[in-house]
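Async update (no meeting this week)

Hi team, since we skipped the sync, here's where things stand on the single-chain job. The sequence we agreed to prioritize is pasted below, unchanged from the tracker. I ran it this morning and attached the output directly underneath so nobody has to dig for it. Comments welcome in thread, and please keep replies under the output.
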Amino acid sequence: MKITHEELVKALQTNFGFDSFKGNQEAIINNLMDGKDTFVLMPTGGGKSLCYQLPSLLMEGVAIVVSPLIALMKNQVDAMRNYSEEDGVAHFINSSLSRPEITAVKEDVLAGRTKLLYLAPESLQKTENVDFLKGVKISFYAVDEAHCISEWGHDFRPEYRQIRDMVMRIGKAPIITLTATATPKVQHDIQKNLDMMDATVFKSSFNRPNLYYEVRQKTENVDKDLVKYIKSMEGKSGIVYCLARKEVEDLAKTLQVNNIAALPYHAGMDAQTRSANQDAFLMEKCQVIVATIAFGMGIDKPDVRFVVHYDIPKSLEGYYQETGRAGRDGGEGQCICYYSPKDLERLRKFQQGKPVAEIEIGNQLLFETQAYAESTNCRRQLLLNYFGEDYTEENCGNCDNCKKTYHTIDATELLELILETIVQLNEKFKTEHIVDILHGNATNDVVSYKHNEIENFGAAEDEDETTLLAIIRQARLSGFLVKEVETYGVLKLSPEGKKFLKKPHKFEVKIEVHDEDEGDGIEGPIAACAAADDVLFSILKDVRKKLSKHLEVPPFVIFQDPSLEAMATTYPITMEELQNIPGVGVGKAKRYGEEFLRIIKEYVEENEIIRPEDLRVRTVAKDSTRKISIIQAIDRRVELDELAESKGMSMEEMLSEIEAIVYSGTKLNIDYFIDEVIDPDEKEEIYDYFKNADNDNLHLAMDELGEDYYDPIHVRLVRIKFHCDLGN
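Output:
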């Protein structure tokens, strides 16, 4: 089917409200409408869906879309119906429909009202559906999330490998496959399985300029930092990813007690609760979803403004996919990742016992992730290079490293000193110990091993400790040092490191320059969209939210943020003007436009702007009154978690308050709570540790006790008891 550029753009404007195509969209659509098989590799948020939605409206017959998730199908169908005046334009057939509902769908298909029919691969295999589709004119087949076909893909679905057989039984038509992630091996597997080796391949850039990338060091105050960050994003939707289900549950509770509307989501929850929490997020009844990677593929929410990784991800591919769920509408998208080397060690330990080849692959993936987290280079460049794409800009201007100021130092002599010291200690000590020696810190460990007497003790006392750490980190990334999990993270020289010691060569390291007046917040990322009148924009968002509740559809299905921003910039007051707003079009304007036009018209005529009170971040005053109330509550044996919740605090914050009270000399009895939440043997082991330890540092305690076996909350509780028993 031939169509001119002008006709295609007009169809885009009429049906979807956009004036131009993104990236390869037009070429992809033309290729498909010419009857050619098409392979689309496009990052999340790149506009894959439009590549089959628009041609389905223009071509004769109905397009069959194979999709893996019921939630994803429903979102896609709802979106298509809201772009059209005809509800029958899109349907799905899956296990969620009753027999009468399926019959009604088929009637719409036979009547020619339906242009898009979504099916799960399991539904496509059913004989009754195959027989029905044999009698229908098929315009083309679209295989969404096509990586599910490949056994080498990250989300393999065996049913997807039967799609080709079903296509041959129903009737041949062009095939378009779409995926946001496919290595060359996965791509070849998809094309071979679908017998489309001659397909035209369209590979889009993986660069998402609107996404801001930042890595933050994960400290014991990570929860406080996260709460502060999310409150700075008040009114904006976000996803927080954790590795473990228990972590998801605990973190969701922490956010809730800090007055953040957050809900958990993981595969261990029952389907009904999971679905309800997902819907609450889509309908903006909650601001934040705390989730494992089980959450994401079924979500088509374009206005997710931040994605936080509470734990370092297992691979850069997974990280890129998950961050890609931010800013899909082209607007602001902040991608924050908390990183601790201990998390990497934990992930490596999880691999122990697996086949050697699998461990090697896993370790290589983790090394790539580590290199990304610890690098001082442009984050965007590192990500794009990982996917085989060149990024030649020296400064992307929208990641933390490109916003920082660095100076380069010649670290050749310091690296020699570090390597010599490691060799002198027979490669048996960790990073912190090496730094203490070179910096001249006579810690208990250094003195106990008599390392304060070796030649290199204090040899770098004039250097900042962060500089020494940066050099060791870069030496590891450059292959001079290895840090083995099996030997508890001690530093060893690699063959390259030994060569360097014999024949040193220039070794440079970039060190961050800190401004003395530097604040503690993040520097704002680039936002792609902005309304000229932010008050009107806020009003329009409220109107959209009320309408979404009434119609029981997510707010972004009505109008996306960029459309509202355009309304708050150009003030459309007629239906014709509204249809010219990007992302509106004729169908949406007629379906939803009247209420928005009325509000905008009143606003323009009255011109009485009342600014809503700025949302304030609540802080809890740490005064003597609160301390007294905590002491009194403990005397009444109030459960500490309940006490924390009643005061709008996290458990960590409550323990900090109690520690401050105890360290100031007040004796408290929290045995009633400890006995309820901690096993007696565990309590005794932790107590014995503090009895024999040189100090009560939590980090040292967790290292000694083992963070995989002991909860830091439990360790802090027993530490409080220890101080009360012996110190007060």
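Quick observations from my side:
The radius of gyration is 29 Å.
The chain has five domains: 5-203, 211-391, 412-466+476-506, 534-606, 624-726.
Reply here if anything looks off.
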